[in-house]
């Protein structure tokens, strides 16, 4: 018999998962899994639960929540060399990660991918002892992702991010940065830098051109110092996936990156506060085994 552990965040997204739990358990049982579930109680609890699932040698861990919950689960799994396969049921507000993987937003369709899909191996980012699966970055605008209040997200969904984003615009300013990647160095004043593993970031689906999930490379986007009018223009271009045409937007592909600044710069990891620069980023090629749609589907 195979064993599965569900780790779910009851506060994620519209908070509707719990009502579906009995049906999820019975479908997993029909598929041959002995399954148990853990409801997270606070920030960080999903990491503890994932570590416990490794110790107990579960075959499968199913993370249920938004990107924050998936990130916490991955940070638990990566404390161990022998890890359960990961499955994800998206329940968050934006769910960048599952969108990038083509995992459906419907609970039961996502469960179907877990039960009837196949294992894939995708890249994971490592930064100063922490792991991320989607994006790392810095710049005032990236703080939107953790400053948008949870209650507001439950009630108005992704609009909460726009509300918070508009509030932050007056505070956006450039900061000096040094980025060492492979054998090269970039220095300059930037409004934003993003280190992505997938191309679905902050709800934008074409931010990074053709980011491959398993090539061992980060896609690095830099927005150099611009005024507010230019910023608005870049954002409009980004919505159409045409921002790389702008002269102040730089794109780099690399697997190992060191970033520093002589100012205090906060980092964002998968939508949560991730400490401060300096930081060393490494792409762990194909390190995560995850349930995905069959290629032919
Ligand atoms: N029982 C809980 N009470 C409060 N917060 C929790 C609880 N369980 C987990 N959390 C925290 O909630 C935060 C947000 O969770 P998550 O990202 O899964 O959902 P979301 O915010 O609705 O979605 P999105 O990230 O897509 O906006 C995570 O940082 C997680 O640590």
From TrEMBL:
The keyword Transmembrane does not apply. It comes from the Bacteria. Its cofactor is Mg(2+). SMART domains: DAGKc (SM00046). Residues 1-131 form the DAGKc domain. GO terms for molecular function: ATP binding; ATP-dependent diacylglycerol kinase activity; metal ion binding. GO terms for biological process: phospholipid biosynthetic process. InterPro entries: ATP-NAD_kinase_N, Diacylglycerol/lipid_kinase, Diacylglycerol_kinase_cat_dom, Lipid_Phosphate_FormReg, NAD/diacylglycerol_kinase_sf, YegS/DAGK_C. Gene3D superfamilies: 2.60.200.40, Probable inorganic polyphosphate/atp-NAD kinase, domain 1. It comes from Phocicoccus pinnipedialis. Belongs to the diacylglycerol/lipid kinase family. Keywords: ATP-binding, Kinase, Lipid biosynthesis, Lipid metabolism, Magnesium, Metal-binding, Nucleotide-binding, Phospholipid biosynthesis, Phospholipid metabolism, Transferase. This is Diacylglycerol kinase. Pfam families: DAGK_cat, YegS_C. GO terms for cellular component: plasma membrane. The keyword Nucleotide-binding applies.
């Amino acid at each position: 018999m195979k064993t599965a552990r569900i780790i779910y965040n009851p506060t994620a997204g519209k908070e509707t998962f719990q009502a579906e739990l009995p049906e999820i358990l019975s479908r997993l049982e029909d598929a041959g899994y002995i399954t148990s579930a853990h409801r997270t109680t606070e920030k960080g609890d999903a990491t503890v639960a994932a570590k416990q699932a490794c110790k107990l040698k579960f075959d499968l861990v199913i993370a249920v929540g938004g990107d924050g919950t998936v990130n916490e689960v991955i940070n638990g799994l990566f404390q161990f060399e022998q890890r359960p396969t990961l499955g994800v049921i998206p329940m968050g507000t934006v769910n960048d990660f599952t969108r990038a993987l083509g995992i459906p937003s419907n609970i039961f369709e996502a469960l179907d991918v877990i039960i009837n899909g196949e294992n894939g191996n995708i890249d994971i980012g490592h930064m100063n002892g922490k792991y991320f699966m989607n994006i790392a970055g810095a710049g005032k605008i990236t703080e939107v992702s953790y400053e948008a209040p949870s209650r507001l997200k439950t009630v108005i969904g992704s609009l909460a991010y726009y509300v918070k984003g508009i509030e932050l615009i007056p505070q956006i300013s450039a900061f000096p940065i040094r980025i060492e990647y492979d054998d090269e160095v970039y220095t300059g004043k930037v409004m934003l830098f993003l280190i992505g593993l997938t191309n679905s970031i902050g709800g934008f689906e074409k931010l990074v051109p053709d980011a491959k999930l398993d090539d061992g490379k980060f896609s690095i986007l830099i927005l150099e110092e611009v005024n507010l009018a230019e910023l608005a223009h870049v954002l409009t271009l980004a919505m159409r996936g045409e921002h790389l045409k702008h002269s102040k937007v730089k794109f780099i592909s690399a697997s190992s990156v060191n970033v520093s600044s002589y100012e205090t710069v906060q980092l964002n990891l998968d939508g949560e506060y991730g400490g401060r620069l300096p930081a060393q980023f490494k792409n762990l090629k194909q390190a995560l085994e995850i349930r995905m749609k069959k290629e032919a589907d």
